[in-house]
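Exercise (ungraded).
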Amino acid sequence: MARELQLMKGNEAIARAMIASGCDGYFGYPITPQSEVMETLMAEKPWETTGMVVLQAESEVASINMVYGGAATGKKVATSSSSPGISLMQEGLTYLAGAEIPCLIVNVMRGGPGLGTIQPSQSDYFQSVKGGGHGDYQLYTLAPASVQEMYDFVFDAWDIAFKYRNPVLILSDGAIGQCMEKLYTRDNVARWSEEERRANAPWGTWGKPAGRGHNIITSLELDSARQEVFNHKLQAKYAEMKEKEVRFEALNCEDADYIIVAYGSSSRIAMKAMQMAREKGIKVGLFRLITLFPFPTKQLAEVAKRVKGILCVEMSAGQMIEDVRLATQCGVKTEHFGRFGGIIPTPGEVLEALENKIIK
Amino acid sequence: MNKDIEARKQELLNDGYEEVYTRTKVLTDAVMHYCPGCGHGTTHRLVAEVIDEMGIQDQVVGVSPVGCSVLAYNYFDVDFQEAAHGRAPAVATAIKRLNPDTFVFTYQGDGDLAAIGTAETIHAANRGENITMIFVNNGIYGMTGGQMAPTTLVGMRSATTPYGRRVDLNGYPLRMTELLSTLPGTYYVTRQSVQNPAAVRKAKAAIRKAFENQKQKKGLSFVEILSNCNSGWKMTPVAANKWMEDNMMPNYPIGDIKVDGKICEGIDANRLVLDHALTVMQ
Amino acid sequence: MTEEIIIAGFGGQGVLSMGKILAYSGVMQDKEVSWMPSYGPEMRGGTANVSVIISDERISSPIINQFDTAIILNQQSLDKFEASVKPGGLLIFDPNGITHEPTRKDINIYKIAATAKAQELGISKVFNMVVLGGFLKLKPIVDKQYIHEGLEHSLPQRHWNLIPQNEEAIEIGKNLIEPVQVL
C-alpha cells in the first residue's frame, strides 16, 4: 500500500480521510475551529474524482438532516461541526440513532457554554456519551489524539457504523483539529458500487425493486410495547459494543503507582506530564481512552486495582471523571484536573495537580 | 391485497358486478388513519396514481413529515423516510443528490413546512433541488389538536387562538407558495385543492407535472394542496369544504403561480408581495 | 534531539508559513514534528503565533508553554514570550519596531534586522525566510536539502519558481544574524 507521508492539520486529515475512505456525501456548515474540513473538501472537488457529493447546508440543523436523508439510502455520509453546531444537531442525532442509520459525525470541540470561545475544549463529554438528544441511545464515540488518528478513525468509523447500524461520533477538539502533524495517508478505498450498497445496506431506501417490500426509515412507533422491544434491541447492540469494540491505550501502567486518565489532546499533555514525573522518579502511567462510548470500564478497573491514585485530566469542569469513578467503584482516590473555556492546561500544571491532589 | 377484500371482490365479480374503480397498487392495504373527509386521503391517492402511471414505483423515495401525514410511509408502497419535524426538504435534498436517478418527493403539512421547517423549505427551493414538494395546507395543526398554524386565517379560531387569530398578536397568514414562486430555484409552483372531482382532476395534473419536471431535471416543483381539516375546524366534511371555498380560497387563490420557471400571466407583484389585505373572517 | 520553538509576530509576517516550512523540512528529514497555531480572531489581522516541535522521538504534547527557542517579530510577542524561553534557551528578535529589548540574563539573545534588510533588497515577501535563515545558522536542526523539499511541499506548485529566492533569503539571514548576549 502506498503510504504517503504528509504534514497536515487534523481538520484537513478528516476531510482527506473522508474522500479516501469512499465517503459518498458530506453536508456541513461553517464554524470555527473545524471549517477546514469543508474548505478542504471544496478545494479537493471529490465529485470530479470519486463522485463524492459535498454540499454547504443552510444550518447545522439542515446538515444533520441531510446526513439522515443521504445515509438512510445506505450510503456513507458524514458531517462535521464544533460544539454549538453539534448542540443544534442533537435532534437529528437521536433520530439517526432511533432509525438505526449508520453515519459519521465529527465534533471539533470548542469552549462553552453558549457561544463560548473558539479555543479547544473537552466540555462535550456528557453531551457525547450521556445522551445529548432525548431517549435511550448511544453514539459510538472515538476520541483521536493525533492527526494520524483523525485520519485513521474515519476509516474505522464506517466499519463500526455499518456493522452496528449506528451513528459514529469522532470527538476531537480545536487543538487536534488545528495542529499539523505527520500523516501517513492510505490508498483510496473505492466508493461502494450499486451492488455493494445494496448488499451492505439492504434496509436502505433507494427505490423499491419489484419483489421486495418497501423499506421504511423511521424512528416512530405508536405502540409502546413494540417501542420497548425496539429499545431492548438497541440496548443489546450497545452491550455488544461494550463487549467487543472498546479501545484504549495503556502506557507505563504496569509498574505505575499513579495513573492519569485522559483522552484526545489532554492525553497528549498528560503524556508529557507522565514523562516529566518519571524523570523525577514518580512512577506514573497514562490510561488513554480511545472509545468514550463504549467506556473501557473493565480494563480501567483492572489497572486501577494496582495504583494508589488516579488523576483525570480533561479540558472541562470534570465530566469524564464520573465514568472513571463508576469504573473503579470509587475504590481508589480519583480527582479531576482541567482548564476550560478554551484554556489548555500545560504539562507542568498537570504534574503539579498530580502531586498536590493525588500524591500528597 | 388483503385476503378478505380479495374474497369479497371475487364474490361481487361472480355476482355480475363490473370493476370500474380500484385502488392503485402504489398504495398499500393499510387502513388510513385520516379523518373521513380530510384531503390527505385523496392527495395520497393522487400522488400514488401519478407514480403508478409514470411507471416509477421502483425509483421513488418519499419523505414524510411530522404532523397528520407522519405515517404516510405506511400507505405508499414505495421506499420512504420519516423526517424530523420540518426537515423533509433537507432530507430530500440529500437523498436526491446522492441518488440522482431516484424520484424524491416530500409530503408536508403547513406547520411542518411553513413554521418549523421554513428555513429548510426556502433553502431547498433556493438551491433549485430537483425534487417534488407536496404541501397540504389546512390552516391548522391537525395532529396536535387544532392549534394555530402559520397559515391560519386572520380571525380564525383555533385551540391557541380561541378568540380568532389577531394580526397584532400572531402576525399574518404566511403564503409560502407565493413566497417560493419568487425564488429563481423554483420551476413550477401551484396551488390546488381536492374538494370536488373537477378540483381533483386539476390537482392530479399538477402533481403529474411536478413529477415530470423532476424526470426532466428541471428543478424544484412545489404543489400546494388546499385542504379542509373538518375535525380541527369542528365542522362536517361538507361544511368544511364549503367553508374552505368561502374563506380559505380568497386568501389562498387556486391555480398555477409559476410554470416552466416563469411567473404566470395575471399573477401580479401585488399578489406575490404586497397584497396582504387579507380577508378577515367574521 | 527535541527542539521546541515559538514563532510570534503580526499576522501577515509569514509566521505560520515559516513554521510550516520548518516543520515540513523536518518531516522530509524523517523527524517527528508538530505545528500548533494560535487561531481565531488573533489570526485575522492581529498577532499570530505558532509552536513548532521537531524531535527524534514521538512528540507528546503539541501544546507547550516553555520553549527552547523563541523567534519574535514584534513588541507584543516579545512581551508575551520572553519569559517562556527555557533558561539557557535562545531568543531571536527582529529589532524593527522593538522599543524595549529583552532583559533576561539567563538566555542567549540574538537579533536579526530582517525587516530592514528585506526592504533594502526589495524582497519583503520572503522576509520570513531571512529570519528562518538566522535561526538555522544557530540551530542547524534540519539540513539544507530538506529545507528545499520542505519549500516544495509548503508552496503550491505555481510558486515553485520562487524557491530559489526563498533559499537565497535563508542564506542572507544566516549572514545577518548577530549576537546580543551569549552565555
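Further reading is listed at the end of the chapter. For now, observe: Chains B and C do not touch (no CB pair under 8 Å). The mean pLDDT of chain B is 93.
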